[in-house]
Amino acid sequence: MSQIIIRGGQRLEGTLEVQGAKNSVLPILAATILHPGRTVLRRCPRLTDVDASIRILRHLGCEADWEDGALVVNTAGMNRWDVPDHLMREMRSSVIFLGAILARCGRAEMSYPGGCELGPRPIDLHLSTLRALGAHIREEGGRLLCQAGTLAGRELALSLPSVGATENAILAACGCEGETVLVNAAREPEIVDLQNFLRALGCDVRGAGSSTVCVRGRQATRGADYAVMPDRIAAATYLCAAAAAGGEVELTGVDARHLSTVTAALHEAGCHVSGDSGRIRLRSEGDLRSIGAIRTAPYPGFPTDAQAVLMAALLRSHGATVFVENIFENRYRHVDELRRMGADISVADRVAVVTGVRRLSGAGVRCTDLRGGAALLVAGCAAEGETAIGDIHHIRRGYEDPVRDLGALGADIRLEP
Ligand code: EPZ
After folding, report:
1. Is the pLDDT of residue 115 over 70?
2. What average pLDDT does the segment 278-300 reach?
3. What's the predicted TM-score (pTM) here?
4. Architecture of the 3-19+230-416 domain
5. Which of 54, 128, 318, 358 has the most CB atoms around its CB within 10 Å?
6. How far is the CA of 241 from the centre of ligand 1 (A)?
7. Among residues 130, 182, 165, which one has the least CA distance to residue 151?
8. Quick one: pLDDT band at residue 114, thresholds 50, 70, 90?
9. Which pLDDT score, from 0 to 100, does residue 141 have?
10. Helix (H) or strand (E) segment spanning residue 323
């Protein structure tokens, strides 16, 4: 099994163009189904989660191929509406295909997405919004059997601003007669990117980024050539690595506003951070201080996906920092691995307290999940000696090439087959 080997202690210097956003391209790939023709996606990151989505599109009868660095999808030949179990199991967020398949085909079938490393991942809000739009959904033998008949737009409200349920509702609403008004929608930038893509297809979607999204369904669609937004969590990861190791880096192609809670935390920890709509610069002496409590929350609150990497950046800070993980039940699985490197972290339910230590030591560690694995990359950059990171398939789900990217910033990092 391949490992990523990092020899810590290097200051990070340099400029990096940030990859396209995993959490934007996945719903956009599902949305390509709404147009029975060709769409071109640029800045589409080469991730295993994208590979899984491509396999689903091909299973459905669509074409999806890389051409000159862009992903070209043509759904004209779509002739199925089911997602088989083995493809669902590859990526639990495949449930995002449900709304789009229903909108296109009037029916859909897929297995219940399993839980994941972060704990149970219910889809009750996905199903309740689709049922509210007129879908008849039976849950039988671990499979979801959905008949849409005629989906009809209406006002509906989410009991919590679920990102995935918001995306599924928007995609299904594109197939509804009339207007759908979604209240208490999630406000993440990735939902704005989905809206922008849908509008490029000719769909009538408005309000994304606010808590109320309006969709007028059954609009004629056209092909689009669309560039996916940059990945704000990948950007946060590399900023945390530079903060922890010390150095001066510039990330381009990223909108600083999308990760302002992360840069505010790094500023409070003693980094010099500046940015605008196209780039972020960070300078750190590597000698950070503890900061006020970090409570994860739906956007625009502190992103749960950046909790692990910020924690890793603060492992050698002076003082103690409290983290409260309010989104997922089991999102501290990286703590045991960080402790192997000398971190002092105590966990009780949703609260973790990081007490800074003077030094971290390189060690053999294993990724527990996507962002937990990213935290090991950050800690490895700040640790003395070599860190060998195993089970790196978790990282490949969301990071196109961390060895390339951290290497571009001066890290002593290599992939060991
Ligand atoms: C998306 O997951 C992201 N994934 C996650 O990123 C991210 O952590 C999460 O949003 C929160 O920002 C993708 O976009 C592919 P939710 P999603 O529905 O849609 C509960 C990463 O590391 N809930 O907003 O699954 C749920 O259990 C990944 O890139 C229900 O109870 O997140 C969770 O506690 C990890 N019922 C909370 O809501 C539902 O029907 C937020 O989940 C749906 C969700």
Report:
1. no
2. 97
3. 0.97
4. Alpha-beta prism (3.65)
5. 54
6. 25
7. 130
8. low
9. 87
10. strand 320-324
Return the ligand 1 atom nearest residue 164 CA. Answer: 19
Secondary structure of residue 298 in the 3-state scheme = coil
Beta strands 279-284; 63-67: pairing state: unpaired
CA–centroid distance, 103 to ligand 1, in Å, is 22
How many residues make up the chain in this entry? 417
- Atom 35 of ligand 1, residue of closest alpha carbon: 305
Cis peptide before 300 (omega within 30 of 0): yes
Which two three-digit tokens encode residue 198?
A: 């849908």
Q: What residue ranges of the chain are covered by domains with CATH 3.65.10.10? A: 3-19+230-416, 22-227
For ligand 1, atom 6, the nearest C-alpha belongs to 305
Segment 6-15, tens digit of pLDDT = 999 999 999 9
| Residue with CA closest to ligand 1 atom 7 | 305
What are the strands of the beta sheet with 344-348, ordered from one edge?
A: 294-295, 320-324, 351-355, 344-348
Q: Is 146 a catalytic residue?
A: no
CB-CB neighbours of 346 under 10 Å: 12
* Paired residues of 416 in beta bridges: 3
Catalytic residue among 116, 271, 367, 381: 116
CA of 161 to the centre of ligand 1 (A): 9
